[in-house]
Fold this sequence. Notes:
The protein has 322 residues and is an alpha+beta fold. The protein is 30% helix and 30% strand. It has two domains: 137 residues, Aminopeptidase, CATH 3.40.630.30; 157 residues, Aminopeptidase (3-Layer(aba) Sandwich). Helix 8 links the parallel strand 10 and strand 11.
Amino acid sequence: MKLRAAGLLDLARIEEMHRSSDTRLSEEAPPAARLWTVLSSTLSALLPLAQETLIYVAEDGGKVVGFIQASGQPLGLDLPRATVLQVLNLQVADGADTDEVASALVEHLCNQALDRGAHRLFVRLPERDPLLPVFRLRGFRQYATEVVVYADKPEMRSKNFPTGARPVRRGDNRLLYQLYRKVTPQEVSQVEAPTYREWRALHGGWTGRLAARGSEKEELVVDRVELVGWVKAELSSGARPNTISFMALPEASLPGDLADLGLSLLGESERPAWSSLRHYDSNMIDALRGRGFSVLLTQLLLVKELAVRVPVREKGLVPSFG
């Protein structure tokens, strides 16, 4: 079996394999779940050939039997500058040995990414995806679980909105990063966004907090000397549901009040709504369950460290004797 970079002559075969997988997914998943996987860069859900991506193929007997695709993160970043890559696609042709071909493609991508200067590879997989063992055996580890909740008709429970709610201001970015670090377990933030610069680059991208084109957005924080909550509502103008995103400290009634505040931002919209949360956002998940939401799907977030981070030693003051 030969592994190589994809060429123009391979694209027809790549699209054929992708369409075959796409049809199977469409038959198995509810429409809303299928739409989420497309929008959130879930593995095998997206084939963006119009932007710069890495695509490698496995060839056996002169025939392409599989391919793997990755893009820089945030999505659309020029590949030469990307130190973080997101695996977008891994497909194996019907009749080929899935374990052999998929494992070889993942290993090849890791080696090529490291040669290009990438430090980390991320992949988002549906729970119980048959390709999960392939990534685990190649050194990927799960660092978080994404829980997507959905409501056809979300319902506010009260108008007792959190005290201190105000619109986001330009100077709030670093305060929001501090809130992110407080609500996110260290083992997650150290992988996802260990620095403010990385958080700014990735915020709103692969984490699932999607920014829909053509949507009306409103963003508020809960300011009580320090920021204790954040909510963003995006009113969709297309086929997708409205999107609500949250961060909240686990303080008494704050998650429930913040959920009502977020729903109020949707106004008179009659569209369904969804929200992407993490396994550690259990208070927000419970609050939304009480307002007509239910779990649409669960996805696993995996990472492989291609280069080990070595903390830079701080310079100390050395006494000088004259």
